[in-house]
Amino acid sequence: MEKTVKILITGKLHDIALKLLNNQPSELAVSESLKIVYIPDAPRDIILKEIEDTHVLISRSETDVDAELLRKAKKLSVVARAAVGYGNIDCDLATEMGILVVNTPGKNTNSAAELTMGLLLALVRKIPQAHMSTSAGGWNRHKFSGTELGDKTIGIVGLGNVGHRVAKFAKGFDMRVIAYDPYISEDVFRKNQAERKNTLEELLAECDVLSVHVPLNKETKGMISLVELKKMRKGGIILNAARGGIVAERALLEVLNEGYIVGAAIDTFDNEPKPLQELIAHPNVIVTPHIGASTAEAQYRIGETIAIQVLKALRGEIVDYPVNLPHVSLLGSNDLKVFSVLSEKVSRFGAQIFDFQPAILKLTVKANLNKEDLQVLKLSAIKGFLSHASEEFVSYVNAEKILQRKGLEFEIEMTPSSSAKNELLFEVYGKGTSEKISVGAVLYDGKFARLSSINDFLFEIELDNDLIVMQNHDRPGVIGDVGSYLAKNNVNIAQFELSRNRRGGMAMSLIRIDGDLESEVVAGLRKLPNLISARLVSGL
Ligand SMILES: NC(=O)C1=CN([C@@H]2O[C@H](COP(=O)(O)OP(=O)(O)OC[C@H]3O[C@@H](n4cnc5c(N)ncnc54)[C@H](O)[C@@H]3O)[C@@H](O)[C@H]2O)C=CC1
Ligand SMILES: O=C(O)C(=O)COP(=O)(O)O
């Protein structure tokens, strides 16, 4: 029966996302049928109920994907954050549970940076106050006198996507741009014409406007507190369109009340949607309700990207923007995608053909790959092996963790090849010296997955459907007996390959069959004369 995947969407998404999920482009089509439950601004109690049988959660910032929610989510395999910040997602627990977390970096950058500049202009020219007064019939040309941006210094904390776009816009207003971001190279500062400050203190001492553009995490929570605010020049202003809590709100209120800091513009708060009342009502503060990403353009890009990420994840492909797959970035090319499928298949095959206690898994790769691509192959091999050998849900995300927990070691080796060979050898070693199996596989023509060897026996058989692996004495009549036995049991043979080590010695056969095979049929095979063993390898 066709599996149904439930996708729960708890935040408002652009129509393009629903269109793509409902009418999947052929290259992203999934085999399951999708049940989409779209509840924008879903209340917490509804989310906690709906999550129980949800496979994919797509959310925005208002949904806390915390331990309470994750523990109820028995079927969840993907959390898709339709934006950038994922501070509201318990990524450690998600990783432990094998849940992939994805986001859409860069897709709302321009909108967030434009809002930041909008807030800055609104603040220094008192636009909201002037509007309120004028629209109410007033005409106060002197009360709403402001200050210029030109020649003022903006200090940017976090010169990432949004930060460097703000830098560019600020340059357009003839501001001096200084920035503090210890995690990026000198080049990024140079390219964005931002003067690098090596410490936060240096930055604070020199800026008239402080704008934060860092993620919220343990390091950045409260990074601008009373001490830091007091290190700014008197008369400075604060912008926060990143995350509530980066600038400590009570401390900000204190310096605003003292008049040390003369204004603040804030889009993101500690306690959304009920921010600190005294702060939002302060006469020198202007506020917006976390709308940095709320533009038609950003939402279109986010909706399109998040739908594609979800479809890729459901197809078992590595996504473009994984949050909790630290070692793997883009699945660069289609070639690598096909190679990673081969790696998963060969190890899943290997997992089903030995009877000893495994200790070490080894993948030897004959190809010319970079470190990242090798990591993809490694994860694919671990995932393939464990998905047969483990009861747990195994994904690219938790594969390494589960392997460690099982006490298994993994070795990977690359044999560079002068021609563009794509060959893999997957080996499983037991604790004893003689316990070992090896399975070779190759990509013919760069795309067709073929099993090429099992131990010393050579083959060329498609790695598809269910396979029977049989060992027999090399004597006349075996193939005939097996063929008629399978026919009697209504099993259709798609491909039959025989390999032997020497004439009259041992032979190994691989039989690829159409459809599924009952284990009793395989058990019956073992009773045929001259058969040494027969086992079923499935799930390829
Ligand atoms: N108001 C809104 O609706 C929106 C808010 N955001 C928020 O803006 C922030 C920045 O977003 P992006 O620029 O897209 O992220 P990003 O990841 O591209 O940039 C963040 C930068 O902060 C730097 N950083 C991290 N820790 C730091 C520290 N302790 N000190 C100094 N620098 C540090 C990183 O090196 C990086 O360059 C995030 O918190 C994001 O959630 C983003 C878009 C919309
Ligand atoms: O991208 C971000 O980090 C944002 O804050 C945007 O969040 P949202 O999806 O608008 O709730």
TrEMBL record:
UniProt-listed CDD domains: ACT_3PGDH-xct, PGDH_4
Biological process terms in GO annotation: L-serine biosynthetic process
Pfam families: 2-Hacid_dh, 2-Hacid_dh_C, ACT
EC class name: oxidoreductase
Keywords of this entry: Acetylation, Amino-acid biosynthesis, NAD, Oxidoreductase, Phosphoprotein, Serine biosynthesis
EC number: 1.1.1.95
Enzymatic reactions: (2R)-3-phosphoglycerate + NAD(+) = 3-phosphooxypyruvate + NADH + H(+); (R)-2-hydroxyglutarate + NAD(+) = 2-oxoglutarate + NADH + H(+)
This protein's record includes keyword rRNA-binding: no
GO molecular function terms attached to this record: NAD binding; phosphoglycerate dehydrogenase activity
Pathway where this protein functions: Amino-acid biosynthesis; L-serine biosynthesis; L-serine from 3-phospho-D-glycerate: step 1/3
ACT domain ranges (all copies): 467-539
UniProt keyword annotation of Hydrolase present: no
InterPro entries assigned: ACT-like_dom_sf, ACT_dom, ASB_dom_sf, D-isomer_2_OHA_DH_cat_dom, D-isomer_DH_CS, D-isomer_DH_CS1, D-isomer_DH_NAD-bd, NAD(P)-bd_dom_sf
Family, as annotated: Belongs to the D-isomer specific 2-hydroxyacid dehydrogenase family.
NCBIfam families with a match to the protein in the record: PGDH
Record text on subunit structure and interactions: Homotetramer.
Record function comment: Catalyzes the reversible oxidation of 3-phospho-D-glycerate to 3-phosphonooxypyruvate, the first step of the phosphorylated L-serine biosynthesis pathway. Also catalyzes the reversible oxidation of 2-hydroxyglutarate to 2-oxoglutarate.
Name the UniProt record assigns to this protein: D-3-phosphoglycerate dehydrogenase
Source organism of the structure: Fluviispira sanaruensis
